[in-house]
């Protein structure tokens, strides 16, 4: 049995404790930490290296703003937004920052477990009630890459590997991997080849 480690960051203690209790009852899920702020999330990312970090949107420090730092500190962690907000702009912003999914708090423990397994498996998860609107919104809005991300995707389009891109830009390979996670999310691509194609088409 493969164990999935989970950290939960939400500034409502009763909700956080309830989620922790529900997930702990699932045989292959292990809750390795809890927090209440963006700073807590960044700390947990380093100290626990969880497979999945459940993150609220509205909390001290801002959940969406915390995503990039979490992924920079622990690139293998999947950030799954767990929130009451169904604001499409928030969903799109979270996904473009690198979140692996977005779950509405009313989904229940079964829906949350499905979301966790989905993102651990390498796929994006969006609550069914929001999926169509979010996907359309992602298509309607051209992604805005940072200058460094633009440097990376241009070298990807030339066929360079992460290692060679790192050498060209004088950056560590893990930093390039983090930039690629951001690029894939912003361009709505599932792999680097698709991202390069979308970039060249002006996605």
Automatic annotation (TrEMBL):
Positions of modified residues (4-aspartylphosphate): 56
Domain HTH luxR-type, chain residue ranges per copy: 138-203
Pfam family for this entry, one: GerE
Signal peptide: none
Response regulatory domain mapped to chain residues: 5-120
The UniProt record lists the keyword Cytoplasm: no
Keywords: DNA-binding, Phosphoprotein, Plasmid
Domain of life from the UniProt record: Bacteria
PANTHER family recorded: TWO-COMPONENT RESPONSE REGULATOR (PTHR43214)
Protein name: Response regulator transcription factor
Organism of provenance: Rhizobium indicum
Phylogenetic classification of the source organism: Bacteria, Pseudomonadati, Pseudomonadota, Alphaproteobacteria, Hyphomicrobiales
